[in-house]
User: What shape does this take?
Amino acid sequence: MKNFTVGLAALVWMALGITSLLAAEALEAPAAAALKACLGKPGSDQCLDGLYREALEKQSPAQLLQSLQKYQDTDPGLRLSCHPVVHSLGREIFRVKGNIHDSFSACDQTCHSGCYHGAVERFLRGDGPQDGRARHVSQDELTRKASAACHPKTPRRIYFQCLHGLGHALMYFTENQLDKSLQACDTLPDDWSRSSCYGGVFMENVFSTAPEKRDVSASDYHYPCSRVDAKYRGECYLMQTWRMEEMGLGTEQLFDECSRAGAFATQCAQSIGRDLSNMARGDNSRAVAEKCGQAQGEARHACIRGVVYALIDNTWDGKYALPFCAALSGEDMRYCEQASAEYLKTFVD
Assistant: This one.
């Protein structure tokens, strides 16, 4: 009886200890409900930054990234919205670390590598005013900052994330002026670097936390891609179908509109796949396969590429991409597997 009592007491103390650890973790990492509350507010960036500023006093960047990964795996709402959340964590990591190298060392690929993007944002903007307004900067200063932000000798996948984050940050500095931001990207040394930066600019325009500042049209599905210089349009169309869907278009209509994009129809169809990738991460690969299957020829392949590229960007492995490929059949499955392998070899190996 005495042994039983001692054993029971030990189990109780163990349970209390585990409960205390879980409670401590819950207190130290922002709760999912708190993150969602911030996302639903105007000025969500400042709200999220405040949560992670406090959290980094108690937990390491790795622990906070792990908590976000758990949310992404278990919470459908945060799975779809985790990218701007992890941007915020990246901004606060840079505030603590003070330089790109150490910040990038603390980041990882969670939620489409948003931590890297946020770190570059903070590199450019500094602590900034707390109301989210950019301080005035000249085009010359933007050019200097842009050229110094990313080191070309870093691994290609890291260099890409830095350049993409640079595009986001330039939009902050220019207060969402597309042309001025794109011109700053133009100072980068080669076509690939410039295109990577353009992509961040156009993503920020579509997903801006200040919707009233977006350069969009209420009636033109192809704007602003239809007005920017041709050298920018490929990267613009890689983001444009999110705006088209926001305007009410379904998958079949999206493919129809993309067919009207002329020389950029392929990039537009790839954008559809990128948008659908969130469904594939949510265990709906078969539904995504069916949606890509509504297209024919190169548009169908582009949609498949858009899905697997985005899925690989999220984890830098085949965790999500290969199950999606398995949901396809025949030639589509073979194409998906080939595209995944080539992308992994280019960006991850």
Summary: Confidence is low (pLDDT under 50) at residues 1-27, 129-135. The chain is about 75% helix and 0% strand.
